[in-house]
Amino acid sequence: MRSAQGTITAEDYLHAQRLHGARMRGWLYGGGIAALLSGGVLLWTLGVTREGIMLLCGAVGGLLAHSLTWHLYVPFKVRRLHRQTKAFAHAFLYEWDDEGVRASSSQGEARRAWTDYLKYREDDRTFLLYHSDNMFEMLPKRWFASASQVDDLRRQLRSLRRT
Known about the structure:
CATH topology of the largest domain: PH-domain like
Radius of gyration: 21 Å
Structural class: alpha+beta
Order of helices and strands: EHHEEEEEEHE
Distance between the termini: 26 Å
CATH superfamily of the largest domain: Pleckstrin-homology domain (PH domain)/Phosphotyrosine-binding domain (PTB)
Largest sheet: 4 strands, antiparallel
């Protein structure tokens, strides 16, 4: 069995939430803002000034709301949830082999077959292992003793859909 272990810090938790939401936020907000900007510019150039300005203001308001949400509200909320989640104070041990994953802490343990996971996501700091579209387990890469352990887990995850 290979393993990784550590505790989940507030920064780990915030990073996981940002990684989880990155794809949807980019598509949803980017597409919406682009549509408002395009529509506003088009209407303005066609001489429909009032409605064009309204759409442009909507785009600016959307950008401002997005920025405030992801840079102020989400960090505040995630840090609060981290403080409330008592399990995060305990160290976690993740072990894996060809059959699946065993996660344990002083609070208990769980075993899951690789087939129980729907997909995974990864960046330079974290793996997210998804049970469903919105439910995941996180493994910060700083928990791994070596790069070869990170590569080994990645090889195990290849059977899953990467998002």
